[in-house]
Backbone:
């Protein structure tokens, strides 16, 4: 591993942790809620996804067996806050059917599958992209797979670690090839990135509030340079 880049990534994480504390992410009561949340949060804020989850829970529908057996038309009205609710209703039902049929609705059975094989199985599901799949691998199955989102690309391209418009795979390799495969670290590192990107490192960044504008006097964000 490239020692300097490894040290840089760890220093950035440490600075984020010092500023924000442990993020205790993913916010869910059960593994299945995390899985549904990963689908519902596609192309929408977590606030909207959380409201959709609350609606499912209030209706007594946050259960893999019930969702697997339900009509998509009955799921859709409950998840309207998540946007694209008709598509997401189909995705939730299809995933629930696979989860019940192939994994007995048991997160441990899912986690027991080899990481690459499980990733390919989930990616084969309609509407499951790499971010949704990797979220389930990391936050439910505790696989050491780094989750990438738009915030990750934005922050680390501004640091100069990635080109603008970097692909998912290139961004993921930055972390996978320079950090030890540690699910706990990957879990909180991604959560710290989400916190920073959502509150400070926005499209129009609030650089004067950024805890990683400069780290240890050597790491400096290009956007924050005056």
Residues:
């Amino acid at each position: 591993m490239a020692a300097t880049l490894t040290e840089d990534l760890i220093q950035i994480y440490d600075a984020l942790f010092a500023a924000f504390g442990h993020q205790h992410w993913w916010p869910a009561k059960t593994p299945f809620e995390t899985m549904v949340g990963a689908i519902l949060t596609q192309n929408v804020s977590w606030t909207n996804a959380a409201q959709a989850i609350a609606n499912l829970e209030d209706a007594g529908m946050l259960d893999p067996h019930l969702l697997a057996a339900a009509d998509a038309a009955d799921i859709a009205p409950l998840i309207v806050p998540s946007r694209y609710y008709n598509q997401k209703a189909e995705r939730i039902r299809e995933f629930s059917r696979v989860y019940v049929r192939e994994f007995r609705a048991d997160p441990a059975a899912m986690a027991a599958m080899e990481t690459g094989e499980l990733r390919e199985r989930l990616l084969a599901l309609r509407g499951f992209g790499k971010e949704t799949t990797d979220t389930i691998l990391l936050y439910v199955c505790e696989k050491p797979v780094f989750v990438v989102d738009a915030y990750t690309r934005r922050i680390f391209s501004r640091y100069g670690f990635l080109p603008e418009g970097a692909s998912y795979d290139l961004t993921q390799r930055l972390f996978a090839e320079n950090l030890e495969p540690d699910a706990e670290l990957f879990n909180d590192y991604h959560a710290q990135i989400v916190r920073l990107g959502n509150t400070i490192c926005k499209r129009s960044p609030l650089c004067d509030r950024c805890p990683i504008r400069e780290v240890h006097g050597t790491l400096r964000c290009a956007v924050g340079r005056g």
Summary: The two ends are 32 Å apart (CA to CA).
